[in-house]
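This part of the workshop introduces the protein records we will be handling. A record pairs a protein's sequence with a compact description of its fold. Comparing a sequence with its tokens is the quickest way to learn the format. To make this concrete, we reproduce a full record directly below:
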Amino acid sequence: MKCLIERCLFPAIGNSKYCEKHKEIACSKWMEMINQQKEQKEQLSEIFAKAYEHALKAAQQAGEEHISTPMVVCEHDDVLDDNSPIKKHWHVPQGVCGFAWVYIRPGNCKLANWLKKTYPNDWKTDSYSGGCKYWVFQYNQSYEKKMKFAGILAKELFFKIKELSEENNMPNPLTKVIIGHNGRLD
């Protein structure tokens, strides 16, 4: 079998598709490509780390500074009648109870994979709705604080990654990625 390179008259060696000279050239180009991909992966990892650290700090600050609307819970004499006399009442300064989370879809994008690998206790694969999720565990049961945290984390993470990748002359790694947040009252 001849070498795959046009106009090369030398035979291919062993299981290779190239002659000895062209095999060395192909190997060096292959190794150059591998090293370039490795550098890009490391650079992207640094971008993700800086963006996540920035977004997490901003979200924590927003969650701590947010003042929830307090709630009063009342127990009536007749549980089925809200007009019956109030037997007991409780003041809940954290406001309504609920949950919040940040999600990234698809769950196998570079960012989601990096988060699951770097923060395995915080970011989990969500088999039910797809993607990768971060359940906001801070702020006890305060729905408002959790939603504030989740919203800022999602927004800041997206924009900081976009900003840092532009600064480093890299293509935006979030072109087909959705970063969002959601919550549920309980």
Residues 20-65 form the longest helix (46 residues). The chain has a mean pLDDT of 86. DSSP finds three helices and six strands in the chain. Residues 48-67+95-185 form one domain.
